[in-house]
Design a protein that fits this description.
alpha+beta, 22% strand, 2 domains, DUF4269, five-stranded mixed beta sheet, Beta Polymerase, domain 2, 5 strands, DUF4269 domain-containing protein
Length: 170
């Protein structure tokens, strides 16, 4: 059995090491809708992605499966750092835009609000995730949202609590 994700983050020094990159832990673990394949997801921001890649390489290249990938995500250059440590897969995502404005963080905030407002949604989403759906498609299906699930979740970002409660059927 692996250690709790919070302990893994602490033991790896993830938030402490990444503090100058405005790290935010996102994803299924802090939402408590994780499944056995869930990993530790951290979003970061840095104007100089090469500097970020070099920094994370120095910090974590000794970890199993370490890799750094450059990609484009939502029309922004991005870096994805991945490795395995302490029984956990770790994904660190970085873009040159403020962390709070990144899609992953924005999705996370909407999902967090939904789960606070409608605690019964947790079991429905977790069950859909266990059947193989990713997080945003699971939320979209549980809520009966149409269209592309990632955009549909972002479409809820400016809804007030009353609107989110109505959507969740509570």
């Amino acid at each position: 059995m692996r250690i709790p994700y919070e302990q893994a983050i602490e033991r790896l020094g993830l938030l402490a090491n990444l503090c100058s990159f405005d790290p935010i832990v996102i994803g299924t673990l802090p939402l408590e809708i994780d499944v056995s394949s869930s990993d530790i997801d951290i979003a970061c921001s840095c104007d100089d992605l090469d500097r970020f890649a070099e920094f994370t390489s120095r910090q974590y290249e000794s970890q199993d499966g370490f890799q750094v990938r450059h990609s484009i995500f939502q029309e922004h250059a991005s870096i994805v750092v991945q490795f395995h440590a302490l029984g956990w897969d770790v994904d660190i995502f970085c873009q040159p835009i403020p962390t709070a404005k990144q899609w992953g963080v924005r999705h996370f905030r909407v999902e967090q609000r939904l789960l606070v407002l409608s605690p019964g949604l947790k079991s429905a989403v977790t069950e859909l995730k266990c059947s193989g759906l990713k997080t945003e498609p699971a939320f979209a299906k549980a809520l009966g949202l149409s269209g592309e699930s990632y955009a549909a979740i972002l479409g809820l970002e400016h809804c007030d609590d009353r609107e989110l409660l109505a959507l969740s059927g509570m």
